[in-house]
Specification:
This protein is of the alpha/beta class. Helices cover 37% and strands 23% of the residues.
Length: 558
């Protein structure tokens, strides 16, 4: 971005950071390139002491690389421009971060600027307890003794709200829940009381209620310590709840910045408007009224129970296994052309329910698909499998990288219509792809391409085409949009809504996203710890939730 461009979009004084307050961090004309490809292009913004600034954009917008470049953690990147950190003793003109040597940066990282990474399970060392990892920061940055550092680690964990911090300090990362791991990483980042915290998608891997808890925790800690926070995210709902100002990035460019309320109420750039308008929209056929003879359900469950075998400790475990009941006494019915949304947090049993519906998990109780029960007869099950198909959460991992589009989409026909000719399979594959908006006119050589040649949204369309080609009556949608950016999510939801209207499909929608349930579902089950705590129509359950757990889920999504 040139000086003229920056002057055309200045940060208005007094908006978000206060009139006349000197910045803590001032970034000017930041550029980051890998080889010949520039991925951050002239980005300029500033953060005041104690301010909460959100850096927003979809995957590939450059927001994470921007943050990593400030502390030189983007490997093999060529970085230019200016990033000056103010407020250090002996540095009245600010410290130029981009000019520091690696040795000099060691004094800045953790001490002045700390970072929380997106996925705590990969960011934390699995070979050390969380207490040891927090204590290591205190020893290195504050020169504390081993005993003092351990005591300080317990205090830091307690400050993040982890229950029984002295005991949890001796736990390894895999022994903690997702929320506890994120709190441990926050404790590590804040152990040396940094002046600026870079939080890179700190809640993406968490359930919706945990996301709010982590944001509230960051806000509390920010108020207590006076640190500034740069929140990197694609979730506009989190930005509304947390940040004071927002910076919007698209394809490496800064396209808009300003106070959160002003930008969201009246976005000026077309890309910002697209992000703000990307909330899922309800577009399903509602019931016209009570039907004297409603159609028979295509899927029905009564007193459904699903259990996993677990080892029993001691001598008793030599002779028999125990069991963990993941779904208890569930009952539901899905009529033709309707969607049942199953919502709940991780561990609630919703994915186990989906596996049982697909005949992939043994179960007790009644579970019928078009009047037939899953059983031990593989030939009988094969007929049911044609009726019920699945679209998985992550299209990249669910599509074989070694198979072409033609092989992936047409694979089901080899099982369910083995007599079909090669030309017949190819034509059916083309038809299925056209139904999801993928045609050879837009994608030359479409059938010969591989999954890595498509974007995330296009890969999910491939997964939907693979399910549709055998002409099922029911689709099990397991978090079908959670791995997608918000604008792509909206496109895929519109596609699923259109296919339901045109084909009369029934959906079993598994998700933790209440907004997706509201956009897609006719009826809702709320699962908690394997139990159905609330059930009814969307209007009943989401419009007037009765159970405290449902109320918490709805509040987290508002």
């Amino acid at each position: 971005m040139s000086d003229a461009q920056r002057d055309a979009h200045p940060l208005p004084p007094g908006e978000g950071r206060g009139e006349g307050i000197a910045p803590l961090l001032d970034v000017r004309d930041l550029r980051v390139a890998f080889g010949d490809k520039e991925v951050v292009r002239g980005v300029s913004f500033s953060i005041a002491p104690g301010e909460k600034l959100a850096l927003v954009g979809e995957s590939g917008s450059g927001k994470t690389i921007t943050a990593l470049s400030l502390v030189r953690l983007a490997q093999n990147a060529r970085v230019s421009g200016s990033a000056r950190l103010f407020g250090r003793d002996g540095e009245p003109d600010g410290l130029e971060l981009l000019a520091l040597s690696e040795r000099q940066l060691l004094g800045v990282r953790g001490q002045d600027i700390a970072m929380i990474f997106q996925e705590p399970m990969t960011a934390l060392n699995p070979l050390y307890t969380v207490g040891d990892q927090v204590a290591e920061v205190l020893q290195l940055k504050q020169g504390l003794s081993k005993r003092q550092a351990w005591d300080g680690a317990i205090e830091a964990l307690a400050a993040t709200g982890i229950p029984e911090p002295a005991r949890r300090a001796n736990a390894f990362p895999h022994q903690l829940s997702g929320g506890q791991r994120q709190r441990a990483m926050i404790a590590m980042a804040l152990a040396s009381r940094p002046r600026l915290l870079l939080a890179d998608e700190p809640t993406t891997a968490l359930d919706v209620t945990l996301r709010l808890q982590i944001l509230e925790l960051l806000s509390d800690l920010q108020r207590q310590t006076g640190m500034a926070v740069l929140l990197i995210t694609h979730d506009l709902n989190l930005v509304r709840k947390f940040a004071q100002r927002v910076v919007v990035m698209e394809n490496g460019h800064l396209v808009e910045q300003g106070p959160v309320a002003g930008v969201f109420a009246d976005p000026q750039h077309a890309y910002t408007r697209k992000l703000v308008d990307s909330r899922p929209e309800r577009d399903v056929e509602e019931d016209a009224g009570e039907d004297d003879a409603p159609p028979e359900p295509v899927m029905r469950a009564q007193d459904l129970q699903v259990a996993y075998p677990v080892p029993i400790p001691g001598v008793r475990g030599w002779f028999r296994k125990g069991e963990f009941v993941a779904v208890r006494g569930a009952g539901f019915a899905i009529r033709p052309g309707r969607t049942l949304g199953v919502v709940g947090e991780s561990g609630s049993g919703k994915s186990t329910l989906a596996l049982a519906a697909l005949g992939l998990m043994p179960h007790r109780g009644q579970l019928e698909v078009v009047g037939r029960q899953w059983g031990p007869d593989a030939a009988a099950n094969r007929a049911i499998r044609r009726v019920v198909q699945v679209v998985f959460q992550d299209p990249f991992s669910s599509l074989s990288p070694r198979m072409t589009v033609e092989e992936i989409v047409g694979e089901g026909l080899l099982v369910h219509e083995p007599a079909l000719s090669i030309d017949g399979r190819r034509e059916r594959a083309r038809q299925a792809l056209a139904e999801v908006g993928l045609i050879e006119g837009q994608f030359p050589g479409l059938l010969e391409r591989y999954p890595h040649e498509f974007s995330g949204g296009q890969r999910q369309r491939l997964a939907i085409a693979r399910a549709l080609i055998v002409q099922p009556q029911v689709l099990v949608l397991d978090e079908p949009t959670s791995a997608l950016d918000v604008t792509i999510q909206k496109q895929v939801l519109k596609l699923l809504q259109r296919l339901q209207r045109e084909k009369g499909l029934s959906y079993l929608l598994i998700t933790h996203d209440v907004l997706v349930v509201y956009a897609m579902a006719h009826d809702v089950l709320v699962l908690k710890d394997g139990h159905i705590v609330e059930a009814g129509t969307v209007q009943q359950v989401l419009g007037a939730p009765q159970h405290p757990y449902t109320q918490a889920l709805v509040m987290a999504a508002v």
